[in-house]
Amino acid sequence: MRTVRALSAALLTLGLAAAPAAADASPSPSQDASAAPTRAGTSFRTATEIEQGQQATANGSTGDYLYWSFPADTGQRPTVRATVKLPDSHAAQTWQIDVYDGLRRRQACQYGAQTRTAAADAPSVELACVLRTVRAWSEPWANDPLPGTYYIRLTATGVPTSDLGLPVDTEVRVESRDIGGAAAVDGSLSEPLVPGIATTSEERQEKAAVLAGLEPEDGWASGWWSDRWVWTGVGGVLAALAGVAGYALTRGPGRPSRVPPPSA
């Protein structure tokens, strides 16, 4: 009976430990729509900063390069979505969305319609890019996503001359799933890949040029903690309880009362 009670308590502990991990796997909550940006930058340096969960809008012209930036932290798998509302009359157009990390390395999409062609006079075109999970650390030669600022570039490619300069309305949104300990690695960056992160506090007080001011809601992760520690601890407890239960089953009830103790 004691063994059953101990195992029940361990299973309850396992369920309580798994609850936060399941909650973290949900998409990031939406931000206040009224605070969402209504313009886009024209280069990496002028990219408009957006929070994850915000729906940013911008007016532009066909042929322009539109840039946004957003923060992504360790264990997140960002999904970038863009909608381009086209003018009433236009030729066939191909639109493309690209995502770059803090080192301005183009990041490949795991899946999603990164490039789409809108038929002539189509009202809109929708694009999506699901990135790989952001890692806390990577080899210098690798192209793995690392925590820091990410850049979105939206543009039309191969536009007919007759369509250059036509007005378009764009919508961009970024959301992430928290993958958790499944993507944990041993190691972390000393600082996230954020432009201006190397400036000192005195320089920032003097209004020095800091090119990125956004960070995750809970701050940048240190890289050493993940829910993998929770599962490791719970596994150790269950292994210890299994050992106790196995010993209790193999030991038996002990010496029967009718059997006299061995003589000295």
UniProtKB/TrEMBL annotation:
Organism of origin: Streptomyces africanus
Give the range the annotation lists for the signal sequence: 1-25
Region Disordered, as annotated, extends over: 22-42
State the name under which the record lists this protein: Secreted protein
Its taxonomic placement starts with:
Bacteria, Bacillati, Actinomycetota, Actinomycetes, Kitasatosporales
Keyword Signal annotated: yes
Q: Where is the composition biased (Low complexity)?
A: 22-37
Keywords from the UniProt entry: Signal
